[in-house]
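We were asked to recover a plausible sequence for a given structure. The inputs and outputs are reproduced exactly as logged, with field labels preserved.

PROBLEM: sequence recovery
POSITIONS: 332
GIVEN STRUCTURE:
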């Protein structure tokens, strides 16, 4: 099959390398808003490049991977669906809820699968936690704790267009909570703080945030995030039940040091998401190839991305207005 890739930045270049290594993918065609960068990445990987992103739609693609900046996601997904090419799109599907709903309306009835890139659904720890919940081994779940702690902030230029900490970062945790528990969020209470670079406050954002989510069965989920965790990149999800508990993301590279007994990680901490989730990123693209081939159902349709986005939107409003927000208040 022939797979196109739009956007060869950090994550896009990684996806191109993964696709090139999949036996079933006969050709990878890459494009970027910067044609020179597309040619450079293509040359390094031994794949083909085209000088314009729109040229991908005349390249006879079976599928398209969208790894561009967020503003380009929606039009590319719609164009690919119109061309009959299956789509893998990094989160979010669009920059806001209305844009996401417009994409859903545009692709409805097309028969073209659109898979959203929530890679934690393919992480071994998250999958094992989901199975522990589904099997009943933990008993009734009462608490979930999730965190995404970045070691350093993104570039300053990224912050004003990121959508904010909850939409850009914690949305992965929100999807993870839903995926692992199988429950829906009904209300949120969120807060945030700025103690780092002034760019966050100037952009109406926060560099550190926390949210309490109430799920539809009464389970409480506590989600925390920061752009300043110098110890290393730390993503964990803990599930606590009446009979047991499990944690995803706790290993000898988790950047945690005990204050009492001197325990510390045996290996170097993870430095960023591409390293921490390398296996999951590969697994989700393998799943996408299976979707393109018609061998499996779509593991993360855009409706799932929309539900996580609703939670992120509710958290952002809760933070700004300093009140509890129900998901129904933001649902369209």
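RECOVERED SEQUENCE:
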């Amino acid at each position: 099959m022939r797979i196109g890739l739009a956007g060869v930045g950090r994550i896009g270049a990684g996806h191109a390398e993964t696709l090139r290594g999949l036996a079933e993918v006969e050709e990878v065609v890459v494009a970027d808003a910067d044609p020179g960068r597309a040619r450079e990445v293509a040359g390094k990987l031994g794949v083909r490049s085209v000088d314009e992103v729109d040229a991908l739609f005349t390249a006879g693609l079976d599928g398209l991977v969208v790894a561009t900046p967020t503003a380009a996601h929606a039009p590319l997904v719609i164009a690919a669906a119109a061309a009959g090419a299956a789509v893998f799109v990094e989160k979010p599907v669009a920059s806001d809820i209305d844009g996401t709903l417009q994409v859903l309306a545009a692709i409805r009835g097309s028969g073209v699968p659109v898979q959203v890139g929530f890679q934690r659904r393919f992480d071994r720890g998250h999958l094992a936690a989901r199975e522990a919940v589904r099997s009943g081994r933990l008993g009734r779940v009462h608490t979930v704790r999730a965190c995404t702690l970045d070691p350093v902030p993104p570039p300053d230029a990224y912050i004003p267009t990121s959508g904010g900490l909850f939409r850009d970062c914690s949305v992965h945790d929100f999807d993870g909570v839903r995926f692992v528990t199988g429950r829906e969020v009904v209300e949120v209470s969120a807060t945030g703080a700025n103690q780092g670079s002034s760019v966050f406050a100037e952009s109406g954002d926060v560099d550190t945030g926390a949210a309490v989510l109430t799920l539809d069965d009464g389970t409480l989920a506590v989600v925390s995030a920061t752009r300043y965790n110098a110890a290393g990149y730390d993503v964990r999800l803990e599930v606590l039940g009446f009979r047991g508990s499990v944690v995803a993301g706790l290993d000898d590279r988790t950047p945690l040091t005990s204050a009492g007994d001197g325990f510390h990680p045996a290996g170097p901490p993870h430095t960023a998401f591409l390293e921490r989730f390398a296996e999951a990123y590969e697994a989700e693209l393998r799943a996408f190839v299976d979707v393109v081939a018609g061998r499996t159902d779509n593991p993360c349709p855009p409706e799932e991305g929309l539900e996580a986005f609703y939670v992120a939107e509710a958290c952002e409003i809760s933070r700004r207005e300093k009140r509890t927000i129900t998901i129904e208040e933001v649902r369209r």
